[in-house]
Amino acid sequence: MKKTIILIALVLNGVYTISANETPKFTTISEVSIEAISIKEHVNNNDKPLTGATVTVTANGKTLGTGVSDMKGNAVVKIAEYNGETVDIKTDMKGMQSIILSGALLKNNGDFDVKLQNMYEGMEPVATVSLTNKIGNIAEKSEEKVAGLNEKAEEAKKKAEEAKKEKEGSIKGKETAEQAQKDAASKKESALNNAEESKKKAAELKAEADKKAAEAKANAEKTSSETAENKEAQAAKLKEYEAQMAKEKAEKEAAEMKKGAEKEASKAEKAAKDAAKDNEKAAKEEANKAKEEADKAKGEAKDAAKAEKEAAEKAKEEEKAAKEAEKEAAAAQKEAAAQAKYKASLDKLTAAQSKIDDKRKKIDGKQDKLNKKMEKGKLTAEEAKLEQDKVNTEYSKLDVATEKVNAKIEKLKKKYKQ
After folding, report:
1. CA 282 from centroid of its chain's CA atoms
2. Among the three residues 119, 142, 167, which one is the final residue of a domain in this structure?
3. How many CB atoms lie within 10 A of CB 391?
């Protein structure tokens, strides 16, 4: 919203009177437009948005507004009162060269793009970019108006000089001054009335805006409520549909399973009949085979006596072999115990190495975080070196621990001849 302040001043020496030996002094009438505005600045580095950059707008050494860039690199600066003058826009961020846009003219919802560079040795901490604008033409026009007013003031001064020469003119001059005073008072009262009407109108507009905002909020809440009810009804309908589809699917699958089961039952019945026939045939074959086996057994009984003698001799040989096997088993058991002890020791060392590996992963995480900080320029060179030294020290400790574990593993291998 713009607001216009009208400044009217008429200063006369004494108490608004002019004597024959005094010169009247007049000031001018000026009008200044003041506006509440908001601007946006996009801050980036190598086309990547920067978060946390501070943007400050100043004019004649006075801060008009500040803002901080968000995750997208956008900083919004709100200025409560802006009178159209040129300003400086300074953008600062740790580890970056500061940029000043000098001589900027602002407008509501204006957009600025600023690219910051990482600081390096010998680089100027602040770079100023002078902006070209037409404020000079405006100033020239203003000077022309001032010159015109000055001419009028000179004319008034000449008239005052003439009034000095006229002894009787003082009374008339006094009357003229009093009339000028009344005119100024009238203008002042008119300006105040206009200002009061503007305030009243602004209050009415604000009340109307508040009313519309309340109505919009109520409509939004009503719409949200109706949407929620629709969602619930739709969810219930969807749930019912899903249940119906599941039921139909279950019935279809049940019918398919029944059909398949009946088919399998028919196959089983046929297989049972075939099996019964096969069993009868097999029983007959077994009876014939049993008779043949009985005849064969008589001949084998004789052979069995001979085989018994041979088996006794073979048993002695097997007993001897069993004793040899027992010796080998004892030796194998001893070796197994040694291997178990070796494995247990190796497992401990493996577990120790696993802990070292876990610690190394954590340090890798620290290294990644440090690299990201350096990529974003969040650290000075000294801070980066200090943090890197800490990480390197932790890596060195793990390297020493790993060497100790490897040495113990080699010692175990030599002990158990692996």
Report:
1. 82
2. 167
3. 15
Q: What is the pTM of this model?
A: 0.32
The verdict on residue 367 lying in a domain is: yes
Exposure string for 100-111, b = 16+ CB within 10 A, e = fewer: bbebbebeeeee
Q: Is residue 208 part of a domain?
A: no
Structural domain count, the chain: 2
Residue 295, domain member (yes or no): no
Q: Please report, for residues 10, 199, 265, 381, 389, the alpha-carbon distance to residue 385 in angstroms, rounded to integers and kept in the order given.
A: 68, 61, 81, 6, 6
Q: Contact at 8 Å (CB) between 127 and 98?
A: yes
Based on DSSP, count helices (H) and strands (E) in the chain, helices before strands. Answer: 4, 10
- Partners of residue 66 on adjacent β-strands: 56
CATH code: domain of residue 18: 2.60.40.10
Give the residues across from 91 on adjacent strands. 55, 99
Query: Residue 80 carries which side chain, given as an amino acid letter?
Result: A
Boundaries of domain holding 397 = 334-415
Q: How many residues does the chain have?
A: 418
Count of other CB atoms within 10 angstroms of residue 418: 11
Q: For residues 242 and 248, what is the distance between their CA atoms, to the nearest angstrom?
A: 10
pLDDT digits (tens, 9 = 90+) for 8-38: 333 333 333 333 344 444 344 445 578 899 9
Between 206 and 113, residue with greater pLDDT: 113
- Residue found by looking up tokens 């992963």 in the block: 361
Nearest alpha-carbon partner for 90 in 79, 82, 98:
98
pLDDT for residue 169 is more than 90: no
Q: What is the pLDDT of residues 220-241, one digit of tens each?
A: 577 667 777 777 888 888 878 8
**Rounded-to-integer distance, Cα 133 and Cα 103, Å:** 8
Rounded CA gap, 339 and 332, in Å? 10
Question: Tokens 């033409």 — which residue?
Answer: 137
Of residues 68, 64, 112, the one with CA closest to residue 86: 64
Q: Does an H or E element contain 347, and which?
A: helix 169-376
pLDDT at 34: 85
In the structure encoding, which two tokens stand for residue 53, read together? Answer: 């950059």
Residue 299 lies in a domain: no
374 in Cβ contact with 384 (< 8 Å): yes
> Which residues, 6+ apart, have CB-to-CB distance to 80 below 8 Å?
36, 64, 65
- Which domain-ending residue is among 167, 201, 222? 167
> What are the backbone dihedrals phi and psi of residue 267, each rounded to the nearest 5 degrees, phi first?
-65, -40
Rounded CA separation 352/221 (Å) = 61
